[in-house]
Write a structure and sequence with these properties.
Blueprint lengths: L1 E6 L3 H4 L5 H16 L4 E6 L27 E5 L10 H8 L3 E7 L1 H14 L3 E10 L14 H12 L3 E3 L1 H5 L2
Parallel strand pairs: 1-2, 1-4, 2-3, 4-5, 5-6
């Protein structure tokens, strides 16, 4: 069975970028999974630092209203990996999940770390490159023209371990 991961679609991220395209793609993928009765697992990154946009006791940490209603499960996490010190493995085992599909925020942190951690645990992983997004850009990394999504997608694709698709390719399956 397959499960969809919707990573860190939280107010503190969505309200700090222009993510309408990504959110629309995530919504359509979620609705497709719901039709196929595949579980949708949301992740909620919680920070202890009050300065963080994802501070655990703030509006920023809440799941964004545009997609929150679709969550079958919500996994709270404190690191970029959805697996580290969470109940995720128990959920996946109970549901007899063999494949996970990655969408969400931030591409180069939580999406990447969770995809690699899933692969390391023996799951088949599909990463939907253009259904991820980030608040960061090339300037963040002092690489002016860096396209973060494309870079991460290319690295994962070249690894030959994780399937990387764009939204259209995924929906055509």
């Amino acid at each position: 069975m397959k499960a969809l991961f919707v990573i860190d679609v939280q107010n503190g991220i969505v309200e700090n970028g222009e993510f309408n395209e990504e959110l629309n793609k995530m919504k359509e993928i979620i609705e497709d999974c719901k039709k196929r009765k595949e579980p949708v697992i949301f992740f909620q990154h919680l920070d202890e630092e009050q300065e963080s946009p994802l501070y655990e006791k703030s509006h920023g940490a809440d799941l964004h209203d545009s997609l929150a209603e679709y969550a079958d499960y919500v996994v709270a996490k404190r690191t970029p990996s959805g697996f580290y010190e969470t109940e995720l493995e128990d959920i996946l085992e109970d549901l007899v999940i063999e494949q996970v599909v990655i969408t969400g925020f931030n591409t180069e942190f939580c999406c990447l770390f969770t995809a690699i951690a899933a692969f390391d645990r023996g799951y088949e992983v599909t990463f939907i490159e253009d259904a991820t997004g980030t608040v960061n850009n090339g300037d963040t990394y002092e690489m002016k023209d860096l396209d973060i999504r494309d870079f991460i997608g290319t690295v994962l694709h070249w690894s030959d371990m994780i399937e990387v698709l764009d939204y259209e390719e995924y929906m055509d399956l």
